[in-house]
Design a protein that fits this description.
- The complex is a heterodimer of chains A (298) and B (111).
- Chain A has 2 domains: 121 residues; 136 residues, 60s Ribosomal Protein L30, Chain: A.
- In chain A, 69% of the residues lie in helices and 12% in strands.
- Chain A is built from 9 helices and 7 strands; from the N terminus they run αααααββαββαβαβαβ.
- In chain A, the strands form 2 sheets. In chain A, strands 1-2-7-5-6 form a 5-stranded mixed β-sheet.
- In chain A, strand 5, helix 8 and strand 6 form a beta-alpha-beta unit.
- The longest helix of chain A is centred in the middle third of the chain and has 101 residues.
- The radius of gyration of chain A is 62 Å and the shape is rod-shaped.
- The termini of chain A are far apart.
- Chain B has 111 residues and is mainly alpha-helical.
- Chain B has one domain.
- Chain B is built from 4 helices and no strands.
- In chain B, helix 3 runs antiparallel to helix 4.
- The longest helix of chain B is centred in the last third of the chain and has 35 residues.
- Classes of the chains: A alpha+beta (298), B mainly alpha (111).
- Chains A and B meet through helix 1 and helix 5 of A and helix 1 and helix 4 of B.
């Protein structure tokens, strides 16, 4: 029963006859191993081309297996060649994908930089617009201020003109009232002889003058007045001062009686101080005995 | 013994034919050929300038596969077709890597 065994040996020998591993196949195998090793050691290949490397590994494993089993040289050579090609393909694939990844990152970076530049430009434009708006508002405010100032001056001028007109009217209406313009404002002077009979007792003719004065003051409610009494130099100084003060107070009282608010009027007596004329003559003394109503500029 | 010798001769003949048959394939390698042709066609336009050596190898291997196919050497044609596809894939990938690296360089240099 050893015959079938002999046949088996014979068949195996026949099969081996067309499958000895040739030196060319060995060389190919060696090249494939080297290519695979350099690809497998490359970290970029591991990172970017793992499936391609696996394909190379599969072909190399197949080539190694066939060589070990003594298969046809042609088959060993074929698989070794595939392994070598695939290993190099894995290397190129890794390079391509790495470049692609860096390209994506670089484009993203460029987009980001462009967006930042646009944002900066927009911010600069906004700041410029805000600055322009501020300047416009400031210019507007300046114009307004100038206009207001000029309007105020106009009003003041008109008020001054009105006051001057009324003062002139008062001067002509009320006998014995003389008006003059000083740096303290308008000053109305009324001689005592036209106001007082004696002491602080008014003359009958003073009523009209006091009416006119009160009417004038009520027409200009924003202007306060100082009523200042003066005497001539004859007589005692203290008595003169007291008399001038009482007379000033009497004029104030008369005006308040005619409807002028008391807080608008200040009354003072200066005695013989600030004479307007010489005390040597009676006419001079008469000029010095007077009441002055100073209309304060508003 | 005579019968046994006859049987041995018969077996030898059968085994020899079987061994020859083992070295050849039965059907033409249609799908391998198609894959190789397609991959070469894909590689050709990009690899002509960027990977001419690799492309030439792929074209040569594909031509040999076509010849083997025409001569009815189907197993040989199958192996060559697989190799041609691997060649073409390498050519295409090489060209792609070169293209992307070029694009990256011009992107970095601010185009």
């Amino acid at each position: 029963m050893n015959t079938p065994w002999k046949f088996t040996v014979l068949a195996a020998a026949l099969a081996a006859g067309c499958a000895a591993v040739s030196p060319a196949a060995n060389e190919r195998l060696e090249q494939a191993r080297a290519s695979y090793r350099s690809a497998a050691e490359d970290p970029q290949v591991q990172r970017y081309a793992a499936p391609e490397l696996q394909n190379a590994a599969n072909a190399l494993k197949e080539a190694e297996r066939l060589a070990k089993e003594g298969a046809y040289s042609e088959l060993v050579e074929h698989n070794a060649y595939l392994a070598e090609r695939r290993a190099r393909t894995a290397l190129r694939t890794a390079q391509a994908r790495q470049a692609e990844a860096e390209l994506v990152a670089a484009r993203e970076e460029r987009r980001r930089a462009q967006a930042q530049a646009r944002e900066r430009e927009a911010a600069a434009a906004r700041a410029q617009a805000q600055q322009a708006e501020r300047e416009r508002q400031q210019a507007e405010a300046r114009v307004k201020l100038v206009e207001e100032e000029s309007a105020r001056q106009q009003l003041q001028k008109a008020a001054a003109a009105q006051l001057a007109a009324d003062v002139n009217r008062l001067e002509s209406e009320a006998a014995g009232v003389r008006a003059r313009q000083t740096e303290r404002g308008w000053v109305l002077t009324v001689g005592d002889a036209l106001l007082f009979e004696r002491g602080t007792m008014f003359q009958p003719g003073a009523e009209h003058t006091l009416d006119e004065l009160a009417q004038f003051l009520k027409k200009h409610p924003q202007r306060n007045v100082s009523i200042e009494g003066f005497t001539d130099a004859s007589g005692q100084k203290e008595a003169n001062e007291r008399l001038s003060e009482r007379r000033a107070e009497a004029v104030k009282f008369a005006l308040v009686q005619r409807g002028v608010e008391p807080h608008r009027i200040e009354a003072r007596g200066y005695g013989a101080s600030f004479p307007v004329s010489s005390s040597d003559s009676e006419s001079g003394r008469q000029l010095n005995r007077r009441v002055e109503i100073v209309i304060n500029p508003s | 013994m005579k019968a046994a010798a006859k049987a041995a001769v018969l077996f030898l003949a059968v085994a020899f034919v079987a061994a020859l048959a083992a070295c050849a394939t039965t059907d033409p390698p249609e799908s391998e050929m198609a894959a190789a042709r397609a991959m070469v066609a894909q590689a050709r336009p990009v690899a002509q300038a960027a990977a001419p050596t690799e492309l030439a190898t792929a074209e040569g291997t594909l031509a040999r596969a076509e010849t083997a196919l025409q001569r009815g050497h189907y197993e040989h044609a199958r192996l060559l077709a697989e190799e041609a596809e691997a060649d073409a894939r390498l050519a295409w990938t090489t060209a792609e890597a070169a293209r992307l690296q070029g694009t990256l360089q011009s992107e970095r240099s601010g185009r």
